[in-house]
Specification:
Blueprint (H helix, E strand, L loop, with lengths): L2 E9 L5 E8 L4 E5 L2 E3 L4 E3 L10 E4 L5 E6 L1 H4 L3 E6 L1 H11 L2 H10 L27 H14 L3 H16 L3
Antiparallel strand pairs: 1-2, 3-6, 4-5, 6-7, 7-8
Helix pairs in contact: 2-3, 4-5
Length: 171
């Protein structure tokens, strides 16, 4: 077991850092290494801005996202670990870009839109956005039914919810 302890990035009143938690690196899944881009002078990581190393994204056995930025070889700096929220992890993948990031997005966040920006018209929203977590098996069943009915996943979920509510209410 390789236990990684994660601390807050801000000092507490005693001049130390608060322990936020820990995870077993050996049991975690390495999801993605950030991509790099030319900045006009050197290649830099798109997340960390490091030249030599690249930031890493992990998914712990317990389902938490963890980012590692090891700048020891680069700036003789810190080896930083931090927990990320789902939104931060998704944005990390989007910002990193590249084929591996697209594959990770498809695996971990399949409902990520192809593009985001100001509305230029088109279909109006059906209602407020609601996020729900489903296990992989249930999601696969929803997707199969949506494909069979030739509708989107979102439309299939709406239909299933309305049908379930009507059945529950005896309508």
């Amino acid at each position: 077991m390789k236990r990684i302890t994660i601390y807050s990035s801000e000092m507490n009143e005693q001049g130390g850092y608060n322990k936020l938690g820990w995870f077993d690196l050996d049991a975690a899944e390495h999801v993605l290494e950030e991509s790099s881009r030319w900045d006009g002078q050197v290649m830099r990581g798109v997340i960390s801005q490091m030249q030599i190393n690249r930031a890493q994204l992990y998914r712990t056995k317990g389902g938490r996202w963890v980012e590692n930025q090891d700048s020891r070889p680069e700036f003789n700096g810190p080896n930083r670990w931090r927990f990320l929220t789902d939104d931060e992890a998704r944005n990390w993948m989007v910002k990193s870009g590249g084929t591996e990031a697209e594959e990770a997005l498809e695996k971990w966040f399949p409902d990520t839109p192809d593009e985001v920006g100001p509305s230029l018209g088109g279909r109006p929203t059906v209602g407020p956005k609601v996020e729900v977590r489903l296990d992989h098996e249930t999601l696969a069943q929803v997707d199969a039914l949506a494909a069979k009915k030739d509708v989107t996943r979102a439309e299939m979920l709406r239909r299933l919810i309305v049908s379930g509510l009507q059945e529950t209410n005896g309508s």
